Amino acid sequence: MFKTMDTDNHPSADSLDVWQRFLNHLQPVSLQQLTGTNPENFRGRLRLAHLGDLRVSILHATEHCLKNEPPAVSSKPRKEYALILPMSGNMIIRQGRDDIPLIRDNIILVNLSYPVETVYLTPATCMQIMIPEARLRHLTKLLPDSKPCSLESEKGLGLILRNQCLGLINGLTDISNEKYCHALGEMLINMLSLVINSAASSGHKKSPELKRLADILTAIDRQLEDPNISTDTVANAAHISRAYLFKLLKRHHTSFRQEVLSRRLERAKTLLHDPALAHLPVSNIAWRLGFNSHSHFSRSFQKASGVSPTDFRKLSTDKKSEVRNQNLELDLS
User: Fold this and answer.
1) What local confidence, expressed as pLDDT, does residue 2 receive?
2) Any keyword Oxidoreductase (predicted)?
3) Please, are residues 120 and 88 in contact by the beta-carbon 8 Å criterion?
């Protein structure tokens, strides 16, 4: 069911042009090459499938995306929503004044009627489901217009939705009946509706304190790669005082230093697990995450995980992702 477009299958073509045609199957985007970059270094892969009027894709962007201007959705309005599930790497969805980091615990729903940018912080893989606006018309009062909607997927209905989406990756390969694919699309819309309604009904119960705590943790996540991250910069980003930051973290049995370290180590696992970064030395991963020394990173990682970063990477390489292994060519001519 999935068809795959891969730059490796078009070695004679301009790889940036090939990639732009790939992405235009999802949404109108533009990639600008920076002066001095070599387009031959760019590699990417996109997998596509249809569930009735829903389009499912797996996007794998490699290191070259870090050397180019962020892909920006064109100004032409699109009556669609994009449901995005991060799978590996680090990206940011930017819409208006809102920056939403793509982390494994979240599902992002974006209204493409408003300009959107995708910022690649590292090579990344994500699943995107394009949904016509008309299919979510009954939910418009629950969805923000011009900013992304973040849905928790660690538990409850959100977890069911995430598992259902990820199950499509393997299942659609063996389904050729369009009627069944249409039924799967209906099931997906129904589950998404349940998740959005559930989030809306519980959202008003979230205390201001928990919202502030979430703002603090989001600010930390966005500054993890900065070696100079501090309580001042995080407090400013969360629009609270430094004293309140300390007080709130202590009340929830944690500390600023502890949160920064644990979140850096969790992101390190993602980077070490990513095959697209297998060529990078572990010391480079440490540097990317703001660690001042390789030894400090290794000691902290082994203490938290029970294995060294090098051993963790070796264990991860045995678990190949089927998403990146399948290579069914879709002719672009």
Assistant:
1) 66
2) no
3) no
CA atoms of 26 and 118, how far apart (whole Å): 13
Encode pLDDT of 226-256 as tens digits: 999 999 999 999 999 999 999 999 888 889 9
Backbone angles phi, psi at 47, to 5 degrees: -115, 140
DSSP state of 327: -
DSSP-derived pairing of the beta strands 72-73 and 29-30:
antiparallel
The residue that leads in pLDDT, 101 or 263, is: 263
Q: Locate tokens 């349940």: which residue?
A: 194
| Alpha-carbon span 6 to 276, nearest angstrom | 14
CA angle 153, 154, 158 (to 5 degrees): 35
Domains and CATH numbers, the chain: 3-203 (2.60.120.10), 208-316 (1.10.10.60)
> How many residues are there in the chain?
333
Q: What order do you get walking across the sheet with 91-95 strand by strand?
A: 29-30, 72-73, 117-120, 91-95, 98-102
Going from the C-alpha of 203 to that of each of 80, 109, 197, 211, the distances in angstroms are: 24, 16, 10, 10
Are 285 and 309 a contacting pair, CB within 8 Å? yes
- What lies within 8 Å, CB to CB, of 235 at 6+ separation is 216, 241, 242, 244, 245
Q: Which two tokens stand for residue 328?
A: 């069914």
